[in-house]
Amino acid sequence: MKFGVMGTGQVGTTIGGKLQALGHDVVFGSRSLEGGKASRVGAETGIRVASHQEAAEHGEWIVNALPGEHAIASLTGCALDGKILVDIGNYEAAVDGPIAMPLGQALQAAFPAVRLVKTLNSVSAHLMVDPDSLGADHSVFLAGNDAAARAEVETLLRAFGWRSILDLGDLEACRAMEELVPMWMRLFGKFGDPNFNLLVVRQG
Amino acid sequence: MKFGVMGTGQVGTTIGGKLQALGHDVVFGSRSLEGGKASRVGAETGIRVASHQEAAEHGEWIVNALPGEHAIASLTGCALDGKILVDIGNYEAAVDGPIAMPLGQALQAAFPAVRLVKTLNSVSAHLMVDPDSLGADHSVFLAGNDAAARAEVETLLRAFGWRSILDLGDLEACRAMEELVPMWMRLFGKFGDPNFNLLVVRQG
């Protein structure tokens, strides 16, 4: 399948590399095509780096791995309608401040014809695409207003290796998911490494 | 030890009953001494229900199990200085709205001489005092600016049966802890029962 992965930071390149390894056809969308970063990312991943518009044009699915504060501006003018948008983004300000409107809901409101599915935003980047490397069960959440799109994203998560997948229903769950960010940061500070996650434990 | 437990809802009565079962001397603080609720709680628990001021006077330790929106007003005028205040509270508005200032930090600012320790606020009431009943490991968090107070509260949590206790450090961690409320609510809605919690999983 063809993917446009928006963002060439740690999350974007990790997801893009995994999608390519699974046999998908990936193009990165970046706002910094001039200078060293785009060519470095291209060289390191073997994946073409293009503008956000070109990457969106390429993708049957879109992945948002942009900083939350920049996502709407960067995606404006991109060919998103009717496509699944996997939103992995978080507001950087959510680390230690309130979220007025969760990013997933803000993106869905800005681009009403996209099939947005929020997922993976509370997971360390290396675990997003290799959950087994933690050596124990742990959980990932997903939410979206389109149940068929949620099911398709769940299939992708299973291809990444996920087993504990909690479908939380519609995008009202974005607050629950995005407000996990301060806990991730606090645990990262406590442990000094990103080799952790949360598991939802239910009475058997 | 003597405890003043503020709040006679599900959380307060559950904590008060457990403290009594452990041999502590408990008085509940309530704003509704007239009418049926105080006598019903007193009859059901065998614990005296008094005003917030009387319960605070009684307690060497104070437990805040009041709705977050009412906590500062209810605790104003109470004898808190120098005592450990175990804050289990959450803002009801935090279920689906932003937290401008976390309750734990707001209480510490309002009562600067209290030794506030935030804990248990993300856990179903029955699991707070009987974590083993879930049948698998799960986690509780704690935070406070006074490390000695955190250690004393950790000892109490162990007496409740907790083993996975994550000390997150100072009260800046209150946002991380209080922003777990929307996830608790969403999982409660998904599962239809409160028999669940989160476990922090770390690479071994």
UniProtKB/TrEMBL annotation, chains A, B:
Pfam families hit by this protein: F420_oxidored
PANTHER family: DUDULIN-RELATED
Keywords: Oxidoreductase
Gene3D superfamilies (alphabetical): NAD(P)-binding Rossmann-like Domain
Domain Pyrroline-5-carboxylate reductase catalytic N-terminal: 2-91
InterPro entries: NAD(P)-bd_dom_sf, P5C_Rdtase_cat_N, STEAP_metalloreductase
Protein name: NAD(P)-binding domain-containing protein
